[in-house]
User: Fold this.
Amino acid sequence: MTRMSTIFSKIISKDVPADIVYEDDIVLAFLDIHPIQPGHTLVIPKAPSENGIACDPDTLGHIMKIAQQIAKAQTSVLGCDGVNFFMNNGAAAGQEVFHTHLHVIPRFTDDNTFEKPLRGEYESGEATSLTASLAASLES
Ligand code: 5GP
Assistant:
């Protein structure tokens, strides 16, 4: 497997399942399999690029536009107090999957997420239900 063919390529082609919150011609947004907080979403471009430094700037702009909408949906559905947008660009910056992706993470006052990351697993049906709520909020 080359660096440009990652697990995210398989999620885009639907060869690997994911809890998809939003999709258009340019991006796909789905729940992170190991959420830092429930609702933790990844926004990725469909066109492969290794990271945000290599990504086409217009595509990067669209990723951010959709991330803003997802943050609003997370706030509405989860009642979170804040949202982190972050992107790891390069192994030295903590990047593990070499396909551009923006993390959109709901935050709660005093959740201490980055001091003590949750990195949990969803219980049966939880991710499906959360995905449906976020997707519905995005459509409204
Ligand atoms: P990075 O460290 O590269 O910024 O983040 C990669 C993220 O991808 C991690 O938060 C990890 O949990 C997530 N991830 C890795 N493999 C999969 C997968 O197969 N499905 C989903 N939904 N998320 C994944």
Summary: The longest strand covers residues 102-107. The pocket of guanosine-5'-monophosphate is lined by residues 7, 16, 18, 30-34, 88, 94-97 (CB under 6 Å).
